[in-house]
Design goal:
elongated, mainly alpha, 47% helix
């Protein structure tokens, strides 16, 4: 037989060392050996690491916006307390356009539960609910020190842009 093209690989370590062990082997400070550098000795170079930063202020503001818009939508359509299923939300990493599209989709799910006699007035009610939810969110965020209202303002601006695009 010929040479086998599938080769065995060595064990793959977990991120920053083997599973259950911190980087550096023994868990101490220093380089690979885990020992601290002696006086006058240069410290061993540290390994690079992955880093994640969460902008919780913006995430919280967008979640507030979602709740206020959907609450106002339910009230304007007169459908009471109906829950929209929540899927995996990647609010921290999604674009403003993606967040807006998902929020408008949630509004449409609520509109499907409204009486069918709404017609074009239903779309006007959804737009008004969106704008009222934005205004209410911005008002609530203005009262909180350090709140990130810029994310809500960006979504409101994208909504206005999309409405203007529909009119032309």
């Amino acid at each position: 037989m010929g040479e086998d093209s599938v080769r065995r690989t060595d064990a793959v370590p977990a991120l920053h060392g083997f599973a259950g062990r911190p980087p550096g082997g023994s868990g101490g400070e220093g380089g690979e050996s885990g020992r601290a550098p002696a006086e006058g000795e240069a410290p061993a170079p540290r390994r690079g690491r992955d880093e994640v930063r969460l902008h919780s202020g913006a995430v919280a503001a967008l979640r507030l916006l979602r709740e206020r818009v959907l609450a106002d939508t339910r009230q304007r359509l007169g459908i009471g307390e109906v829950a929209i299923p929540t899927f995996a939300e990647l609010v921290a990493v999604e674009s403003t356009g993606s967040f807006l599209s998902r929020l408008l989709s949630d509004q449409n799910q609520l509109a499907a539960l409204a009486p069918p006699a709404l017609g074009t007035a239903g779309r006007d009610a959804l737009n008004a609910a969106f704008e009222a939810g934005c205004a209410e969110s911005l008002e609530l965020l203005a009262a909180l020190p350090g709140a990130d209202a810029a994310a809500v303002a960006a979504v409101a601006a994208e909504f206005a842009r999309r409405l203007a695009e529909l009119e032309t």
